[in-house]
């Protein structure tokens, strides 16, 4: 596996990471097979996929506990990223809480669940306008000074918040949704990352499965049920774009997922996608994309396809959209 530098830290991580959100319980995209998830984590070690991404809210802690089983005996081989900021709301959902007074406790809880002494990359999962960014990052910086965290990151933050954070303490990474299907970050956020020397870590780089499974049958608790892009009102609106991507990938002898990841990797040298999966076969497919290079002609053809067929459907519902780019 090729590697890339995380921001300007000098730290090398795998060019493609592993999003682990769906591995524990049915928190994200339907039922999970714990044994296959554990096998996928072991296989990631074999493939040298070193950047693993989780959060304390995934499965309400169950995801971190699952990773512990493979992480602890292989600590030196994994660059572990986790997040704080969402808390259970008592009704089966979650709310944002990034108050400085709770950050240390959230970190300690994650360390205990993960079974490790230091988190490699600690993200604030969202920005809360009611909490000054400087105060939040200041509390996170105290964790670095205490040796509990190595590097700091933000998630779904605006360019303005990113600049305020970076002025308080070095920020190594910004995690935001970015894919062929979601390109909002290209206007202001990616340029800000480039200006500040911060790695952009795209989550859902395969469009939450839309690029690989255009008409998924969604489980009862699947998060995508709340996303307009997967709603009945969108229907087959994105079919032409998907067909064009599939044709281009087929002609190149790769999968549509590999085409999408190769395109994303080419957008910036410090960009590190974290495609999520809980199955070994998809991990193999995703990891192989790090070796794919698009020709100038292929890139132009892909760009023309995107320009001709704009994506239909918002990535989040109204409530969730209010929590991003703040």
UniProtKB/TrEMBL annotation:
Residues 16-305 form the NADP-dependent oxidoreductase domain. This is Aldo/keto reductase. One of its GO terms (cellular component) is cytoplasm. InterPro entries: Aldo-Keto_reductase (IPR050791), NAD(P)_OxRdtase_dom_sf (IPR036812), NADP_OxRdtase_dom (IPR023210). The keyword Repressor does not apply. Gene3D superfamilies: NADP-dependent oxidoreductase domain. GO terms for molecular function: oxidoreductase activity. The lineage of its organism: Bacteria, Pseudomonadati, Bacteroidota, Cytophagia, Cytophagales. Keywords: Oxidoreductase. It comes from Hymenobacter lapidarius.
């Amino acid at each position: 596996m090729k590697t890339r530098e995380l921001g300007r830290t000098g730290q090398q991580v795998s060019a493609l990471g592993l999003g682990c959100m769906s591995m524990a319980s049915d928190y994200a995209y339907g039922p999970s097979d714990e044994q296959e998830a554990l096998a996928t984590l072991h296989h990631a070690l074999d493939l040298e996929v070193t950047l693993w991404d989780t959060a304390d809210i995934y499965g309400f802690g169950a995801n971190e506990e699952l990773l512990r089983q493979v992480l602890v005996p292989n600590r030196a081989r994994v660059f572990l990223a986790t997040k704080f900021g969402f808390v259970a709301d008592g009704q089966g959902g979650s709310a944002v809480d990034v108050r400085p007074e709770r950050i240390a406790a959230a970190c300690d809880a994650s360390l205990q669940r993960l079974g490790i002494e230091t988190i490699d990359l600690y993200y604030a999962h969202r920005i809360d306008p009611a909490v000054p960014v400087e105060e939040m990052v200041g509390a996170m910086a105290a964790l670095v000074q205490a040796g509990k965290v190595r590097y700091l990151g933000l998630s779904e933050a605006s360019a303005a918040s990113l600049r305020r954070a970076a002025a308080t303490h070095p920020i190594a990474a910004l995690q935001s949704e970015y894919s062929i299907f979601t390109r909002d970050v290209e206007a202001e956020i990616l340029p800000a990352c480039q200006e500040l020397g911060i790695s952009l870590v795209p989550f859902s780089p395969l469009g939450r499965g839309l690029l690989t499974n255009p008409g998924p049958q969604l489980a009862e608790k699947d998060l995508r049920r709340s996303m307009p892009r997967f709603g009945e009102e969108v229907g087959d609106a994105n079919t032409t774009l998907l067909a064009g991507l599939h044709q281009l990938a087929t002609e190149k002898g790769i999968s549509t997922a590999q085409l999408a990841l190769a395109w994303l990797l080419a957008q910036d040298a410090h960009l590190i996608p974290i495609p999520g999966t809980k199955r070994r076969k998809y991990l193999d497919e995703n990891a192989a994309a790090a070796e794919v290079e698009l020709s100038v002609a292929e890139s132009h053809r892909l760009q023309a396809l995107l320009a001709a067929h704009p994506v239909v459907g918002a990535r989040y519902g109204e409530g969730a959209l209010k929590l991003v780019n703040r």
